[in-house]
Amino acid sequence: MKVNNIDYRTVWMNGTSVFFIEQNLLPFQFSIQEAKFCSESCNAIRTMMVRGAGAIGAIAGFAMAQAALEAPENEYLIFLQNAKAAIEATRPTARNLFHAVEKVFAAALISRAAAVSAAQQVADRDAADSRAIGEFGNELIREGMNIETHCNAGWLAFVDFGTALSPVYLAHQQGKKIFVYADETRPRSQGARLTAWELNQAGVPHTIIPDNAGAWLMSLGKIDMMIVGADRIAANGDTANKIGTLEKAIAAKEYGIPFYVAAPTSTFDLACPDGRHIPIEERSEDEVLYQDGITSEGRLARVLVCSPESSALNPAFDVTPAKFITGIITEKGIIKPSRKMIQQLLT
Ligand code: MRU
Question: Which of 156, 160, 208, 317 is a Cys-bridge partner for 127, taking CB atoms 3.0 to 4.6 Å apart?
Answer without folding.
Answer: 160
